[in-house]
Amino acid sequence: MSSLLPLCYYVHMESEIPKNFALIGVGGYIAPRHLQAIKDTGNKLVAALDPKDSVGILDRYFPEASFFTEFERFERHIEKLRRQASGEEIHYISICSPNYLHDSHIRFALRMGANAICEKPLVIKPWNLDALSDLEHELNKGKINTVLQLRTHQTIIDLKNKIDTEPMHHKYDIDLTYITPRGKWYGVSWKGDYEKSGGVTMNIGIHFFDMLIWIFGKPQFYQVHHISDTKAGGFIELEKARVRWFLSVDKNDLPNQNQEGNKAFRLLTIDGREFEFSEGFTDLHTEVYKRTLLGEGFKIEDVKPSIKLVYDISNSFPISTDSLLHPFLHNVK
Question: How far apart are CA 78 and CA 189, in angstroms?
Answer without folding.
Answer: 29
